[in-house]
Amino acid sequence: MSEQGSRGGRVVWHDLMTTDIDKASEFYKELFGWQLTDVEMGGGTYRMIRSGETEIGGLMSLEASHGAPSHWMAYVTVDDVDAAVQRANAQGGETLVPTTPIPNVGAFAVIKDPSGACISPFKSVHSELPESDAPTPAGQFCWDELLTTDPEGAVRFYGELFGWTEDKQDMGEMGTYHFMKRGERFGVGIMKMPPQAEAPPHWLSYITVENVDRWAEKVTQLGGQIFCPPMDIPGIGRFAVASDPTGATFALFASPTES
Q1: CA distance 137 to 120
Q2: pTM of the model
């Protein structure tokens, strides 16, 4: 995990909170070829995800009786987790998990924005890792996008929380897309929840694949579902939205040269 900028604002890690860690593990190992290693984390087992030589996230068990569905959680760097929590609360957010230390790693919290989507501010104890402008390798997270009922409100909320700035673009039938930037770098996206969507507002994490159509077929073969079939984003690439067998949603993405 790494950090960048005066408030950070860089997505550096993803955790899957799942109601069936073993079923989810088998699914993602087969789908993306991830290597999974158990690490004891005091309160329970944390299953580290490695894609090739790179650690990209982890899996944790989510008690089904708590009522929360399986979901992916993005971690975003900040200079001070307590201060980030205060900024979120001052804007109408809610603290779900207060600032919590992770020994030899850093500290995190979980906050819910005013529309109900959840994200985790994170502060690392380790030095910053450099960013690369090279294409994201297959099997790694390449983008995060907020689907929300209030895009304009989300732009204000996350701009204040992480120091992101907005670059709006007209995406035709898809409506206005709000690119959120860290300096000159595009960081994440925010868009209005499609009217036909049945899910509540949430963050959607994209994973690079070599061919979206082929990987969408693999998702269903492995027991997952496809909610949005493969389609093109003109000038950007091709994507599909899927869920694993435990119900956590994610997106597949390939650039034009890879799709």
Answers
A1: 24
A2: 0.93
